[in-house]
Amino acid sequence: MDEHFDLTIIIPVFNEEKNLSRVETEMLSYSHKSKLKVKFLFVNDGSTDSSQQMIEAICNKNPNFNYLEFGKNEGLSTALKAGIDATTTQWVGYIDSDLQTTPDDFNLLIDFADNYELVTGIRVDRKDKIIKRISSKIANGIRKSMTHDGVDDTGCPLKIMKTDAARNIPFFKGMHRFLPALILLQGGKVKQIPVRHFPRIAGEAKYHLMNRLVGPFVDLLAYKWMEKKYINYTIKKKA
Predict the structure, then answer these.
(1) What's 154's DSSP letter?
(2) Are 96 and 20 in contact (CB under 8 A)?
(3) pLDDT tens column, 210-219
(4) pLDDT reported for residue 171
(5) For residue 197, is it within any domain?
(6) In which domain, by residue range, is 172 found?
(7) Of 99, 93, 77, 116, which Cα lies nearest the Cα of 8?
(8) Is the residue at 2 inside a domain?
(9) Helix/strand/coil (H, E, C) string of 73-142?
């Protein structure tokens, strides 16, 4: 494990050139408030705008920022897996680069990080457009009824996990929607904490009605198949 930092915050990026200066400012500000020694890892998911140049400029100025760049767009689940694979700290976090959640609220999650494999935010007073809120509520309801994970807002882009538990997650396309259920599947514990939510003030949302409902339902079928096939065991005694 990393001797100099405790928490790595993964920041997936896909065409977010209008947000990255603010991301740098807010992450640097949070690094001085964090209850853990924190560093940041951009994962550029095949951006076609100037995001990569901006990421490199940020990392060159700030020693606690690093990056990975994909050759093409691979999707959020792959970006998270790559970030987790590269993490060397005890804990790994995740926040979206649209900054609809604030890194300051990681301190709320950190209070429970010792005792839970996953601490996830619940967005209160959401600032999204009504169609996004409705589709998210429907998707969350279907997922919750089929996975029985007890989580109200699995899509909240503010999470902290124990890195060892995160590495044991069985990854597949769309798995980011099922992080709580996948942690529970391996016998881990999950905690939900209310966090603040803000409107997107720059860039464009990457999800719409179809990929917020149809995609998650297809991924849910994949999760249900994997749940039946998942191998989990404990050793009672060995010699």
Answers:
(1) T
(2) no
(3) 555 666 677 7
(4) 78
(5) yes
(6) 7-229
(7) 93
(8) no
(9) CCCHHHHHHHHHHHCCCCEEEEECCCCCCCHHHHHHHHCCCCCCCEEEEEECCCCCCHHHHHHHHHHHHH
